[in-house]
Design a protein that fits this description.
By secondary structure, the protein is α+β, with helices and mostly antiparallel strands. It has a domain at 11-63: protein bp1543 (Ribbon-helix-helix fold). 52% of the residues lie in helices and 16% in strands. It has helices at 3-6, 33-45, 50-65, 71-88; strands at 15-22, 25-32. Strands 1-2 form a two-stranded antiparallel sheet. Helix 2 (33-45) crosses helix 3 (50-65) and helix 2 packs across helix 4. The radius of gyration is 16 Å and the shape is globular.
């Protein structure tokens, strides 16, 4: 059962650090490669670069909640929300086990 998870390529969960500016402030964010891929997709869907997308997200978090104590955890959770939304989109030609 766990082979699908345990057998994945270690490069997927290797940490990658990216340096960027969040609202004019230079910082670095360290996330697993798989999450960077999802964030890149999310930014592309919004028609912007990943740094610009993250900066906008950070601004919105500040407006709604004040400073976040763990922005990288927020990013991981945003990725899981995004993936959950993708599951809700009907896909043509999708085959289900019941068929």
């Amino acid at each position: 059962m766990c082979q699908m998870f345990a057998g994945q390529d270690p490069a997927r969960y290797e940490y990658v650090t990216r340096r960027l500016r969040l609202n004019g402030q230079s910082t670095s964010i360290r996330l697993e490669r798989a999450f960077w891929g999802i964030l890149d997709q999310m930014a592309g869907k919004e028609g912007t670069s990943t740094p610009a997308f993250l900066s906008k997200l950070h601004s919105e978090v500040l407006e709604q909640h004040g400073e976040t104590s763990n922005f990288t955890s927020l990013l991981r959770c945003a990725c899981t929300i995004h993936l959950g939304e993708l599951e809700q989109i009907p896909q043509t030609g999708r085959r289900f086990a019941a068929e």
